[in-house]
Amino acid sequence: MEKSFQKEARDFYAPYYANGDKAHLIDHADSVCNLALEINHCCEEKLVILASYLHDLFNAEDRKNHNKLAYEYVLKQEDRFLKELEQSELLEVAHAVLEHRASFKGEFYSKLSELISAADRGRPNLKEVVIRSMGYNNENAEDVAKHIKEKYATDGYANYPKVYKELFAKELAEFQKEADDITVERVLELYSEAS
Fold first, then answer.
1. Domains in the chain, ordered, with CATH?
2. Alpha carbons within 13 A on the beta-carbon side of 188
3. Taking the model in full, what pTM does it have?
4. Where residue 22 falls among pLDDT bands split at 50, 70, 90?
5. Quick check: 165 and 172 in contact, CB under 8 A?
6. Rounded to 5 degrees, what angle do the CA atoms 139, 140, 141 make?
7. What is the CA radius of gyration of the chain?
8. With contact defined as beta carbons under 8 Å apart, do 23 and 102 qualify?
9. Residues whose CB falls within 8 Å of the CB of residue 7, separated by 6 or more in sequence, listed in order
10. Cα–Cα distance measured from residue 108 to residue 98, given in angstroms and rounded to the nearest whole number
């Protein structure tokens, strides 16, 4: 059930990602979905898949408010997948897309919210973050180095859910240390390795 439903959901929501920046195309939603399914231990798989593909649905339209737009979209039950959900499931998915951002501060509505937020962080990997950030920032290494420090450094604004800290404790500590020390030269080095 999982793989065929995942493909169905992916195919249905992919057009929303077509005009996104390089860091927020459908492959990002795929990565979030795959990691969420891998680390999931308590949420219904169907809801994990839907929340994964819905979380950045309106990123290309309005980066600042995309999570709020997706939340409203879910609550309106605008599509065939959402129309099939019970009210409690709908609320779980809606809150998961609302609360997925790294800047979210507060209590998660449910385990699904925490799971999607954790999966959206991706595994702690500086090279992957550099590649995604360069795609988002039009390959401006200076902006990327600044962004990585502000968001991912030890005192950065990125919020890591409890489940994420438990799963990736050692890797996260190393990643944050690398983010503390990031330079433009290091960004360019990591990016060139990926090319």
1. 2-121 (1.10.3210.10), 126-194 (no CATH)
2. 6
3. 0.90
4. confident
5. yes
6. 100
7. 16
8. no
9. none
10. 10
* Long-range contacts (CB closer than 8 Å, 24 or more residues apart) made by 105-110: 105/159, 108/161, 110/43
Long-range contacts (CB closer than 8 Å, 24 or more residues apart) made by 122-129:
122/31, 122/32, 122/35, 123/35, 123/168, 123/171, 124/168, 124/171, 124/172, 124/174, 124/175, 124/176, 125/171, 125/175, 126/175, 126/178, 126/179, 126/182, 126/190, 127/190, 127/193, 127/194, 129/179
Question: Percentage helix, strand, coil, to 5, in the chain?
Answer: 65, 0, 35
Q: How many CA atoms lie within 13 A of 175 on its CB side?
A: 22
Token readout for 73 is 């979209």
Read off the amino acid at residue 8. Answer: E
Residue 77 tokens read as 């039950």
User: What is d(CA 104, CA 26) in angstroms, rounded to the nearest whole number?
Assistant: 22
- Residue 2's pLDDT is 57
The pLDDT tens digits for 66-82 are 999 999 999 999 899 99
